[in-house]
Design goal:
Strand order of the largest sheet: 6-7-8-3-9-10
Organism: Flavobacterium circumlabens
Largest sheet: 6 strands, mixed
Structural class: alpha/beta
GO molecular function: ATP binding; ATP hydrolysis activity
Helix content: 25-40%
InterPro entries: AAA+_ATPase (IPR003593), ABC_transporter-like_ATP-bd (IPR003439), ABC_transporter-like_CS (IPR017871), P-loop_NTPase (IPR027417)
Distance between the termini: 62 Å
Pfam families: ABC_tran
Protein name: ATP-binding cassette domain-containing protein
Strand content: 15-25%
Radius of gyration: 19 Å
């Protein structure tokens, strides 16, 4: 018997006034899978994720998480689902007035009640160790580099032990080496915590490193789906355009004349 997907979107529609952003997309994420979603700016990638966590209300369609259609849930029911979901925001979204320790403590206390101080400290250290930043525990966000902020954001995401993680442009704004380190961390988190993930990215190297499967959205619909290698070898000119810049980068600069 085929295992039920942990996330399934069926015929999702979402418009803002006359602007129809999602026009009936359907996709599924299997347990333990990292699904990458690609698409040009404005194609609806982030809108789909926001609908999945209830930040936006779908106009039409089914949004099933753990086999439950969240469009049918009340506020309390939706919150129970959210407790099993982590979200890594593009800008890190740390509280500037709180230290790293305080940022993680706030998230943990908000998610799990009645924890002892010893338990909180233990879980904070474990999360920071997972991202290689135990030494940053008492630093303020203003003292952190862009890559460190992404790592702390990931630590804050995994500290609640989510079953699902949504990554919104996890490598945006980072240099190539740091971006690869974040991609490696995403893989490490999947392996350690057995998470299922959706990764929204424009970074094709991140997509190649992290994606078990890739979906490309075009004009509010799923245009193509497959592994990185399958899509890279596609004969569709529009699909191939996503891979052209990456291949040019890999080959290095051309000969000088």
């Amino acid at each position: 018997m085929k295992e039920q997907p942990i996330i399934e979107i069926k015929n999702l529609h979402k418009a803002f006034g006359k602007n129809k952003v999602l026009k009936g997309i359907s996709l599924r994420v299997n347990k333990g899978e990292d699904l990458v979603i690609l698409g040009r700016s404005g194609s609806g990638k982030s809108v789909a994720i926001k609908c999945l966590v209830g930040l936006l209300e779908a106009d039409r369609g089914k949004l099933e998480i753990f086999g439950t259609d969240i469009t049918k849930l009340n506020y309390e029911g939706l919150n129970k689902i959210r407790l099993k979901i982590g979200f890594m925001f593009q800008n890190g979204a740390l509280y500037d007035s709180m230290s790293v320790r305080e940022n993680l403590t706030f998230t943990l206390k908000h998610h799990t009640r009645h924890l002892t101080e010893e338990n909180i400290e233990q879980q904070i250290l474990e999360a920071l160790e997972s991202v290689g930043l135990q030494d940053a525990i008492d630093k303020m966000p203003s003292e952190l580099s862009g890559g460190m902020i992404k790592r702390i954001s990931l630590a804050r995401t995994i500290i609640i032990k989510p079953e699902i993680i949504f990554y919104d442009e996890p490598t945006a704004g980072l240099d190539t080496i740091t971006a690869q380190e974040i991609s490696e961390l995403i893989l490490s988190v999947q392996k350690k915590y057995k998470t299922s993930s959706i990764i929204i990215t424009h970074d094709m190297i991140c997509a190649k490193m992290t994606g078990n499967r890739i979906i490309i959205i075009k004009e509010g619909l799923v245009h193509a789906e497959g592994t990185y290698e399958e899509l890279e070898n596609s004969t569709d000119p529009w699909v191939k355009s996503f891979f052209f810049a990456t291949n040019q980068y890999a080959m290095g600069p051309g000969p000088t004349v």
